[in-house]
What we know:
The structure holds two protein chains of two kinds. By secondary structure, chain A is mainly beta. Chain A has three helices and 27 strands. Chain A has two domains: 36-125 and 263-296; 132-242 and 315-369, no CATH class. Chain A has helices at 2-17, 251-265, 333-341, and strands at residues 21-23, 36-39, 42-43, 47-54, 69-75, 80-87, 90-94, 103-110, 118-121, 124-125, 127-128, 132-140, 145-153, 160-172, 179-182, 187-190, 198-204, 209-212, 220-230, 239-248, 282-285, 292-293, 298-300, 302-309, 326-329, 344-350, 355-360. In chain A, strands 2, 4, 5, 6, 7, 8, 9, 10, 21 and 22 form a ten-stranded mixed β-sheet that branches. Chain B folds into two domains: 9-102, 3-Layer(bab) Sandwich (Phage tail protein beta-alpha-beta fold), CATH 3.55.50; 257-890, Beta Barrel (Maltoporin, Chain A), CATH 2.40.170. Helices cover 7% and strands 52% of the residues of chain B. In chain B, the strands form twelve sheets. Chain B has a 22-stranded antiparallel barrel. Residues 1-30, 104-140 and 235-243 of chain B have low confidence and may be disordered. Classes of the chains: A mainly beta, B mainly beta. Strand 1 (21-23) of chain A pairs antiparallel with strand 55 of chain B.
Amino acid sequence: MKERLSILILALAAFLTGSCIYPFIPDIEDVDIGLFVIEGDIRIGAESYIFVRNTQYLSATGEPVNVLADVWVESDKGKITRTDIYRDGAHIIDTRNLDPGDSYRLHVKPLGSSSDIEYVTEWLEVLITPELEDVSFKVDELEEKITFHVSTANPDTNPYYKWNCNEDWEYTSQFHASHIFNPSRNTVEPCLGVNTHYCWDKDVVSNIMIASTEALTENRLVNHQIYELPFMSDKLDYLYSIEVIQSSISAEAYTYWTVMLRNTDQTGGLFSPQPSELRGNIHCVGDSAKIVLGYISASKVSSSRIFVSVDDFPMQNKRQNCSAFIEINLAEQSKMRRYYYGGYDVVFLDKMTDMTSWSERRCVDCRLRGGTKEKPDYWPNNHN
Amino acid sequence: MLKVRSNRLEALFVLVILGVFTSGGLLRAQQTTIRLSHVGIDSLVSYVRNIHPKTYFISDGLDQANYTVEAPREKILESVFSLLKEKGYSVTYFDDGIYILRTVGFATELPMGYFSTGEPAQRDTSIYLDQSGYKFTFANKVYEIGESNSGVTGKVYLSGHITDVATGEPLVGISILEESTGTYAQSDASGFYRILLPVGEHQLRFSGYSLEDLDLNVLLHDRGTLDVTMKVKVFALKGAVITSESMAQHRTSRMGVERVRVENIKKVPAVFGEADVIKVIMTLPGVKSVGEASGGFNVRGGANDQNLILFNEGTVYNPNHLFGIFSAFNTDIVSDVELFKSSIPAEYGGRISSVLDIRGREGNSKNIAGSLGLGVLTSRFHLEGPFKKEKTTFILGGRTTYSDWILKVLPKNSEYSNGTASFNDLNAQVSHRFNQRNSLHFSGYYSRDRFSFTADTTYRYHNANFSVKWRNHFSDGHSLVLSTGYDSYGYKVEDTHNDWSSFSLSSNIRQGYVKLRFQSLVAAKHTFSYGINSTMYNVEPGNRLPYGDSSAIEPRRLITERALESALFFNDTYQPTDRLSFDFGLRLSGFLSLNSRKFYGTPELRVSGKYSFLPNLSVKAGFNSMAQYIHKISNTVAISPTDTWKLADADIGPQRGWQAAAGLYWTVFDHRVDLSVEGYYKMMRDYPDYKSGAILVMNENLAQELISTMGKAYGVELMIKKPGGKLNGWVSYTYSRSLLREMEDRGLQTINNGEWYNAPHDKPHDLKLVGNYKFTHRYSISVNLDYSTGRPVTIPVAKYLYGGGYRLYYSERNSYRIPDYFRLDLAINIEPSHYLRQLSHLSVTFGVYNVTGRKNPYSVFYTRNSSGSVSGNMLCVFAMPIPYLNLNLKF
């Protein structure tokens, strides 16, 4: 009987290893509710980036269209600072020299909307963010991930913090090609100019990273974890850098981000809280019933950057699934052409034998994995 | 002054010991050998009658066997009787007569005068059962109560205890009917019954589900006691007359009362084979849940914190183990479960939706017995028996789990893979019977759960209850039940993910209570009960303390809330005619918050009436109003391990609700099938909901985060029930709605713009089937089918790019329904063989939960992909067929 039982247990275990979450497309009509979404903060001491977009229906593909708008910051002293530049969807306002002692509000008037429609935030006091005392990472070998931590202390009483992170990373192709095939001349030439081994890519961390020290005896965070990356992440390939931008936020902003976190990242579980309404601090002048999404804060931010090198954590086997080299003699020009147009490229040339070794192009050209050769200007090495 | 004159039945009704019998001088004969060869039963009895003229035998005409007996003359009767006993007859020497009967459960006063205790009748039962109209009637036997010359006239009280013949356990809910006058009574939780009858001869029918019906002829001269033992129907394959349930249905005006005995609970297939009280409750019409493995249940559109769950009088705040996969009650020590979903007796209060009364068993008063159970996730044991036979009994039960492995086998990247989960529960009950009129019961219960999903966060919660109950039948017509106890519920979360901010968070409810209930039988068909309940609450809403030496968490304890809830109740049950019956109850509940000195009082009305067109066709209608002074504070749809409870105070008032209901009940096919239709309409006010972004833990100004909602629910429940026979079970269909609406106007913030919206458990169509088919005594199959409309959830209407990723925008609450729920479970039960002399019996249940493997979603939700877009998902708890094997060893 005991044996039968253990067989059953095994059978059950097998059943349960199947994931409990299945993809599911709810049968709902795509309705474009067409609400305006205003994103960005008034960053005193830096440039402020304000984005105006529309909501999209759930199954919509592609990024939302950026809406061009008349965007300006108004101070309680009556000073108006307008958008300088509009670039990549961002309305960039030069708020570097604004007085943090003043209160501000943001005005957004989308172009093309009727003349009496204007979106305005509440008056916002500028919150001065304390310096980041420390940004560090820890290697968690058990869970095979790297965790990122911040330490900060605020002499002020405001206990609410928010972080935004920008990531840059340098990665390599599997092979560092010494030569390259020139299809116009059917020759194999040494790589001179630009190498295709080192590339850079970047991202914005989309997690909502917030914390409160309300429950603590002092307004201080010690090694507070904000973010993590598994060892196997593509971002941890050669050299990774994260810029942590810290801002102090108000209690209302903290509630707003908490609800957004709950509504977006904590739904569907057995004990998940029910999603709730999320209203920001922007309202529509001229039509008070019109809903506009977004929460604008005003703050003077602080930031810090750290690097994580591939040597900082246990070696991971991240081979890019490249096939064995294909050997082609320099004389076989048509074969080389065939391979070249079939998605292969030269890795190196053995001048003693005139044999070239070929691999998939993605294995020698890092640009094919999404990045560029644009090295960030602060990057600490000189790979180009 | 109240001297009880009960005739001493045990002196009259003794076992026939043939040694005594023969030496009694009845036979004086020569040493010759008598041989009776191949005679039928009638001839055999005739022969006995020649020797002993007062021999009584009721022929059922079915015994076609031939008997052969050979014995010396002086021993011939002894031999005949032992042969008859072998063939399944009982031979009873009574007064100066000999009664030869088929062995059918009946007995009289304790110690039982029952001939073949615990012995199975070794005979071909199918013949017996074919005789469906066969009722054992001890037609020639009249139980005389009191002295024939007592000179008493008018009506007198007859009372007594009904117990199980084998275990001595009190039998609850047995119907007692005197047919000629139509007087009706039911045994209470201690097996005690009381009936008021005119002096004279009566025929009493005792019936109860899964028990052999018992008809007794009683000649009442005076008030007295008649203790009755009844026998579990071993041969209840078909044809047996089951009348108790339907009798109760047509005799009382109460409606929406569902009683489930533990035997039935054990038959219903359950996930991992763990018989489960609450999961069986969910198979009844009008009871729903937000999803499988979600703790809690919803009765007739009520919320899951509006059910009063009582276990041996104590309140259980969290009835779940293992996130809700199991309920926290060990069925080995449960006797029966009663759910009041419409007519809630006035003695209960404090919740506005329903009362679930779970009664623990009393121990076997004759022998030490016990069981061991082995399931896929849990194992359990129980032990029971007498400390002192027939006087003091105990029962002890426990369960533990080895469920950790279930989390260990989850995929490594799932959020549960580093989790652990365990639970235990322990029950103990000691009952002492001082005498006929007094008994004392001690009950203790403890359950605990501990689990973690990640290595650095641990959750624990516990329920603990202790109670003492005294039952006293202080005079013929009056009795009282006094109980007092202490309940505790609490949870604790330890979060150690960061040394600097490691904390423990806990919350506790402790309550002490006293319940006193008097019951008096004013007239034959008029019962009046009254009493008081009083509960002292002590709620610690939250304590957050640093955990570890380097933690900078500021120790904080929210102010303990204290309150006193008391109620005075009256209940009058009056049955002017056989056709008509009324129940009028009034409960005056009062609540005093000792923190804010705020008092709330509510008169609660509990009325119902019944009219029977025919003995088997009745209509009923009722109205109930209720108040609830304690609220569960949670914004999850299921009962979660970190729910806190909040007492009403100056800022947060009580929830109040009422329900009006009407029903039609029809028992057809010779009392074998009950048909019923019940409809209800229900309203509630001041049910708490929360503002967006409300902070519910460690918040001392909770009132600012709350908004009041009102609710309405209505529905029709159709049910066909066949309580007995080879094929038994029920099928029900319910159409119901449950809607909520915010009571305040908060402009743009108002939930659903102030319109009605679906409650999270609003599942309009609901079809349930529970069936059991017995092939033989040993083999049976059970089926459980559950279909319902998908529950409403709030899903996003739009997405938007924000902060580097897509976010979701929700609009109307609960406007989308997840796919319909359908589940079919099957189980094969193999009962132990009926060689009852064997020391232990192994019963085996093999089953499959969710046979069709349907992926029933618990929820539908959207997640952000790494690629930046959003995609729909559904979470299924048991998305595969789950086979199980359960072994249960009884000894």
